[in-house]
């Protein structure tokens, strides 16, 4: 089955979101939206505010101002249905390394109240990621790349409409990074899932449908990779990114 992008359906709307830590404004009036089947890259240097945005999206923190709507549900009013439609892979590993792959996935399935569908969903996701043979392996024995794949399988288990990837390739070698980006791209195409992929690595965003450049808590620019090249007059995305973040002009 392949997704038809003809009629976009927003799976995520971020409206004028502001968040401060004391005097530090980590996010300043940030707005973005993401449609079904769209791969949107959130590109920003260290300290841009990417993790802060993800913490707000995953309900760990609340906004100082603005609204976050996931699958039509305002997270501040209806957190449970909002979060139920979302999967997330955090920058920091969150598997219980003392448990098996299966036990980690079953724990997540119980949290989502998946019931009798659990076993077949686990088998499907592990098979897709080439991890069926590792199902009973204790996670501490897995390579870094395979641990990330288990985290991705866990994030996909309850079939979310929105997948958040927060610098999910940290610690992976270049081939594994590319493998993960390509796999998630296919998920967008095949399942019509929306993906927000945060990174500071430009090579991970070259195939994104849209790139949002976040810098010092503000969105500097948004558009297709081609739009950003045109906007900056550069020939490579890495140069366009450097150009935008060094100029800091508001170019939306
Ligand atoms: N708990 C906190 N307390 C105080 N300041 C914080 C806290 N978390 C983040 N910040 C500050 O907020 C700003 C945004 O940080 P954030 O971690 O969201 O950026 P990031 O884009 O995820 O960076 P990185 O790529 O390095 O992970 C930075 O100035 C950071 O120092």
Describe the structure.
The chain has 252 residues and is of the alpha/beta class. The protein has a domain at 12-94 and 160-247: 3-Layer(aba) Sandwich (Rossmann fold), CATH 3.40.50. It has helices at residues 50-57, 79-84, 101-111, 118-128, 144-156, 174-191, 225-232, 237-247, and strands at residues 10-21, 24-35, 39-43, 65-70, 73-74, 86-89, 162-166, 194-199, 210-215, 218-223. Strand 1 and strand 2 (24-35) form a beta hairpin. The structure holds adenosine-5'-triphosphate. Adenosine-5'-triphosphate (ATP) binds at residues 21, 24, 26, 44, 46-52, 200. GO terms for molecular function: ATP binding; ATP hydrolysis activity. It holds the Pfam family ABC_tran. Residues 12-241 form the ABC transporter domain. It comes from Beggiatoa alba B18LD.
Brief synopsis:
With 252 residues, this protein is of the alpha/beta class. The chain contains 8 helices and 10 strands. A 6-stranded mixed sheet has the order 6-7-8-3-9-10, with helices on both faces.
Spatial strand arrangement across the major sheet: 6-7-8-3-9-10
Structural class: alpha/beta
Which ranges are low-confidence, i.e. pLDDT below 50, for 5 or more consecutive residues? 248-252
Q: Could you name the CATH homologous superfamily of the domain at 12-94 and 160-247?
A: P-loop containing nucleotide triphosphate hydrolases
Count every helix, treating DSSP H or I runs of 4 or more residues as helices: 8
How large is the share of residues in beta strands? 25-35%
Mean pLDDT across all amino acids: 90
The shape, in one word, is globular
Largest sheet: 6 strands, mixed
> So, CATH architecture of the domain at 12-94 and 160-247?
3-Layer(aba) Sandwich
State Rg: 18 Å
Bound molecules: adenosine-5'-triphosphate
Secondary-structure element string: EEEHEEHEHHHEHEEEHH
Question: Total number of β-strand segments?
Answer: 10
Amount of helix: 25-40%
Could you name the CATH topology of the domain at 12-94 and 160-247? Rossmann fold
CATH class group of the domain at 12-94 and 160-247? Alpha Beta
Instruction: Give the termini separation.
Output: 34 Å
């Amino acid at each position: 089955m392949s997704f038809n992008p003809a009629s976009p359906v927003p799976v995520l709307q971020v409206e004028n979101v502001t968040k401060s830590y004391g005097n530090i404004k980590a996010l300043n009036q940030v707005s973005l939206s993401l449609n079904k089947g769209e791969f949107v890259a959130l590109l920003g240097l260290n300290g841009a505010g990417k993790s802060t945005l993800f913490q707000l999206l995953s309900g760990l923190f609340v906004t100082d101002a603005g609204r976050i709507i996931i699958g039509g549900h305002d997270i501040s009013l209806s957190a449970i249905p909002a979060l139920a439609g979302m999967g997330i892979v955090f920058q920091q590993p969150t598997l219980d390394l003392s448990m098996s792959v299966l036990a980690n996935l079953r724990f997540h399935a119980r949290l989502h109240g998946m019931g009798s569908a659990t076993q077949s969903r686990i088998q499907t996701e592990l098979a897709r990621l080439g991890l069926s043979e590792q199902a009973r392996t204790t996670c501490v024995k897995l390579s870094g790349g395979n641990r990330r794949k288990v985290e991705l399988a866990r994030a996909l288990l309850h079939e979310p409409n929105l997948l958040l990837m927060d610098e999910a390739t940290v610690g992976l070698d270049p081939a594994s990074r590319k493998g993960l980006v390509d796999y998630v791209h296919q998920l967008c195409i095949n399942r019509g899932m929306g993906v927000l992929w945060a990174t500071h690595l430009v090579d991970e965003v070259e195939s994104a449908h849209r790139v949002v450049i976040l810098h010092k808590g503000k969105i500097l620019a948004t558009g297709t990779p081609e739009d950003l090249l045109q906007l900056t007059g550069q020939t490579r995305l890495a140069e366009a990114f450097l150009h935008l973040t060094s100029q800091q002009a508001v170019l939306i």
